[in-house]
């Protein structure tokens, strides 16, 4: 009995019930949620029959008592709620993932591709590259600076706002600064880009709008979005965009990348940097 859905039990027994029991059975099927909190007397009043008829129905359905039938109703209701909750959770995750994928797919357009190759040209010919990102943009900036440093020399990350003056001190007109800035826009990123622009350093902005605070100052702007569907402004699309830049860099400068990575591998081995 417990393995069957309560509705199925009622359906199979329905033709053999008395007219009063059919009223109760129909009420239970229509109002299962409410019935799970009601006593036999309350169910009887709601369906227009006596409490005794409700108890007799439980026997006719194969239960040993009204309490056992009531337990079956409650278990069925709880099972429904769990199923609904599970579906809601799955829908939330699916919605976030679909939103993320849509943002990433929008990166594939002719204008974006052209800008990526322009950025790569600037990065290859720069005497040094400074990468900056604050608050929500810091994680992506750290990852990009680390990965770019495996492809070329003289890549530095601005670690905190107090590093701005020291970081800018050695820049030249041949230098490039990559500034990541996404909502909520940190003032430090705008100040850094403004000063770099003032002294003639190439400013590359990675941001969400062409007219964002750093976008207005940039020589080249790469655009994408953070995924707000997740509730925490996921930077996965930003990482994907930066990964495209790194891939294009390797494609454009294979000899330089190979030389750099061979040197790094020698150092990693000598200093026993990695587990394997």
TrEMBL record:
Residues 119-254 form the SIS domain. GO terms for biological process: carbohydrate derivative metabolic process. The lineage of its organism: Bacteria, Bacillati, Bacillota, Bacilli, Bacillales. Residues 4-80 form the HTH rpiR-type domain. The keyword Acyltransferase does not apply. It holds the Pfam family HTH_6. One of its GO terms (molecular function) is DNA binding. It comes from Priestia veravalensis. Keywords: DNA-binding, Transcription, Transcription regulation. This is Transcriptional regulator. It comes from the Bacteria.
